[in-house]
Structure formats: structure tokens, C-alpha cells
Amino acid sequence: MTKTKGADVAEQNPAPTRSAKQKRTVRLSTTIFIGVIIAIVGFVGGMRANDLSLAFSDSSNKGLPSQLDFSSVQAVYQKLKKEYDGQLDSNKLIEGAKKGLVEAAGDPYTVYFTSSEAKQFFGDLEGKFSGIGAELDKKDGQLVVVSTIDNAPAQKAGIKAGDAIAKVNDEDATSWSVEQAVSKIRGDKGTTVKLSVVRDGKLQDFSIVRDEITTPSVTYSIGDDNIGYLRISRFAEGDTTTLARKAAEEFKDKGVKGVVLDLRGNGGGYLTAAQDISSLWLKDKVVVQERRGSVVQDTLRSGSNPVLQGIPTVVLVDGGSASASEIVAGALHDNNAAKLVGVKTFGKGSVQQIEDMTGGAELKVTVAKWYTPNGKNINKEGINPDVKVELSDDDIKNARDPQKDKAYSLVKGE
To answer: Total domain count for the chain?
Structure first.
């Protein structure tokens, strides 16, 4: 059984009707907020029940035995029990065996969460946690900062998307998993963590004071030039759709000349939220398609009330735009509803699903790949913007934003 959190938002955003089973289905991206962090980033869900059974009937693992022979594992346990000079905890051994089994799949996005880790996972998705406010992932074997949360300690200290984490509190972190890094970087409000990161080939140290972080998923404004600015920091299932539709209605009522949708640093969220956000611009268009091998599992389409349809729109993206962010960017771009400005996105094109396990544990498992409306899988490649604009360290230091400036000039037709 799968599960999600968040209120049903179908009435606020009339996307295609979903059954009760669909509303409980969760698809996930890979990023883990370090709050670090939300292990989340980008939930991609909404698969129908019959599609779900089809997906697993189409599995490439049909040749595996129905049951594994764990006699050799028991042999290791007996030797460990007999010879180990120390106190063993049977529950920890069992949890460790489960983690090891899942890790042996060789997929960094397929992860076993213990009960406590699962609670953290879903709790963080709501945008409330204590830590530094960054998102981590593993890229090319390195622990990399995918993005930082606006005004959170990591961002204030100078941590940037793309920084490779070399050390945490002077411990070598180069071989750590994302989960190991999260466990070390997390901490209580007021405590300090030291990160050593590699940026442009140079090692830099940052001391960051942890804090409690509450992040609204949507902020918006209308400038003096009558351009609507919509910033989405994550795709939560309930408040993101509600707040974004409220913003869109206000934009329409006030007759904005254009809209800038800022998805920079947005590591993802629920696919249903990405579908609903796309529906603000698109009417009955393909948003994303899920495939398992060559078999199409699900095609998600936009709703019937695109309040921003036809309004000039530019989407801001960067290397921290991942998963659900890439789905929205790809959907608006491929359906000719928006231009993309910034730099290439992260490149997260696989689909994860959360499965309930015994004792409150959860299994996050890769079940499919997703494709843009034009049929492109962006895994490890990302999406290239229509207009490439870099954001330099000097720009950040001097509070300049040439990416945003370019987006505004484009929606104005300049």
C-alpha cells in the first residue's frame, strides 16, 4: 500500500478526477532535503490501480526466485553472535540486513527507511524541520548540494547549488551515502555544523548554525510593471496547488502582462501537484508520461481551467530544479506555453514509489521512468533552457539576478 499526505485539492484545481486509490498513490524523486532535509524531492504519483498491477507484471525480474535463500545470512549471523566482542542488537541487525538488501539493487534512488527515518521523510515534506535548509543528492559519485531553501541557514552562510560536500565536521564524507550525510548534518536548533565543500576546484569551509525552518511552498507578487512573479519552492500536495491557483486568479483579475514562474532550486515534490500547476497554463494537454521499459504505464494530462492560458510566461530553472520541477518546465515548454531561462536543470527522470513495510518502515523503490510531452527522458541530462543565463558568485554577492532580469524582459517582449 502507498500513501501520501496533504489535502485533496481537486476542487481548487479541476485536474482530471482521481479515485481514492489514486490519491493515496505516491511517486517520488530522489532528492533528500537536508534540513536537511526532505527526502523527497519530487514525488511523482497518480498511477491508476490497474496500471500499478500492469507495471509489476511487466517487471524484468520475472526470472528471480519467489523466495530468497537466507541460509548463508543466518550463517553469518551465527558466527557474528558467537565471535563478536561486544553487545549486539537483534533489531538493528535485522534493519541493517533490510537496508543492505535494498542497497544491493545498485540504485541510489531505491532506499529502505526505518520507522524513524520514514517519519522524518514524510514530516519534512510538509516543510517544517530543524537543520540547515539544503537539498542533497549523489551525482557522479559525489555528494552534491542540489539547492538551498530561501533564507535558510545554508543559503545565508553561502552554500550554493553544485557545491560538492567533502567533509562534515572535519569527517571525510566523500564515500557517504545521502542518508549518512543527512544524519550527520541534521541537528537541533542553535547547534553548529561545519561543512567543507569543493567549489570550482577549491575547498571552502562553512560553519552553519542550525535553525527551525518553515517554508511556504508558494510566494507571489505583482510588480509596478504589472508582471506577475510566482515562486514555487517545492511541490507539496495541498498548499502548493491552493496557493498557486490563488496567485493565478489574482494575476488574471489584475490583468498582468506576463508571468515569471521561478522554479530555481526547487527539488521537486508530488507529481499530482506538478500536474495541477501545469494545469494553470494548459487545457487537456499531456503533462508527463510514465513508462516501464517500453510499456506506457500512465499518461497524465492537464485540467480544464487554465486561468493563465495565453499569458506570456517564462520559467526560471537552474541546476537545482529537479524532478517535479522538470516535469512542469518540460510540460509548459513542450506545449509552447512558456520559454525557459537560466541554466540546465538537474536531470531526474526516474520514478520512485513509496511502499508501506512492517513496523512503520517504508521502501522507496524505482518503478519507472518519466517522459516529457515530446517523449524525452531527461535522466542525467536535464533540460536545457531556451535562453541560457548564468548566475555568478559576484551576482549573488551584489544582490544581482540577471536570470530574473532576462525573464522579465522576455515577458515584456523586449
So the answer is: 2
